[in-house]
Amino acid sequence: MGEVLVGTASWTDRSLLRSGWYPDDVADDPGKRLGYYARHFPLVEVDSTYYFPPSEANARAWARRTPPGFVFDIKAYSLLSRHPTKVSGLYKDLRPDTDKTNVYVDDLPRAAVDEVWERFLGALQPLQEAGKLGAILFQFPPWFHISRRNKQYVLECAKRAAPLRISVEFRNASWMSEENRAETLDLLEGHGLPYVCVDMPQGFPSSLPPVAVATADLAVVRFHGRNAREWESGSVQRRFRYLYAEDELQDWVPKIAALSERTSATHVLMNNCYQDYAVRNGEQLAALLSRANVPLASP
Q1: How many CB atoms lie within 10 A of CB 65?
Q2: pLDDT tens across 229-265, in order?
Q3: 3-291, which class in CATH?
Q4: Residues 122-174 pLDDT 10s
Q5: Which residues contact 162 (CB under 8 A, 6 or more apart)?
Q6: Pairing between strand 218-223 and 196-199?
Q7: What are the sequence ranges of the domains in the chain?
Q8: Which of 45, 153, 167, 264 would be a feasible disulfide site paired with 135, CB 3.0-4.6 Å?
């Protein structure tokens, strides 16, 4: 049985800074915020790396500002997970000569893509060396449906990232349909890749069922809220504006307990990052897990 680590998908979200969760002497000091967060949670997901590649300097600072045993999950850069990527977000020397605002991985020369991979992974080495790197989250886009080509791309991502570990989150329902579910889970389990379990609004083409399953010795659960009304609004702030009720979190306690029994670690991340919703629900879920005697990592 492995420990469960509970955290949130950001410690620097603007609405969190405005919410009052951080004390006044911490909220305005980037150097203090992460240390304060780490006194409350043993895990955090870095989502800014989806928009802009990380730097070694930042990774080194993150490692320095957190205690031993603290873990960072890192969201993969958008280009690498086949999302549209702002040209202005690319490394300056790799930006294509184009009038486009966004580009995709197939728009760049192979050598440029290889360089993006190398720099992205290289920047995470300070976390790896400090023993604080968890998984690199590859959240694939809604149009990334199950197919032979896309299955091979998932495996290519894992191979390129090795020896660093990736976790895999789908946003296209075809991967976990009744027809394809066993095939998807067999693929991930056969290559030791963690399937990212999700809690999210249902009834959309991007909806995945709230299935709790472990396909590796690490399990990952991400809570996106259940704001169905705003799920396809295009606004990140409105989409994740959802505060879970205690009974909704309680429903996941036996599922998370079962995951912990089959893995060496389980990462649970609240992605309802609106004001202090994620930290409130994270602390609430941790308390529920503790009362259920689920082995819980302490901050």
Answers
A1: 17
A2: 878 776 677 788 899 999 999 999 999 999 999 999 9
A3: alpha beta
A4: 999 999 999 999 999 999 999 999 999 999 999 999 999 999 999 999 999 99
A5: none
A6: parallel
A7: 3-291
A8: 167
**CA–CA distance, 29 with 177 (Å, rounded to integer):** 46
Which residues touch 27 (CB under 8 Å, ≥6 apart)?
17, 33
Strands 85-86 and 102-103: antiparallel
Question: Tokens 């075809």 sit at which residue?
Answer: 174
Confidence band of 58 (pLDDT split at 50, 70, 90):
very high
The per-residue DSSP string of 237-253 comes to: HHHT--PPPHHHHHTTH
Q: Measuring CA to CA, how many Å separate 168 from each of 6, 58, 81?
A: 18, 24, 10
Helix, coil or strand: residue 135: strand
The mean pLDDT of the chain is 95
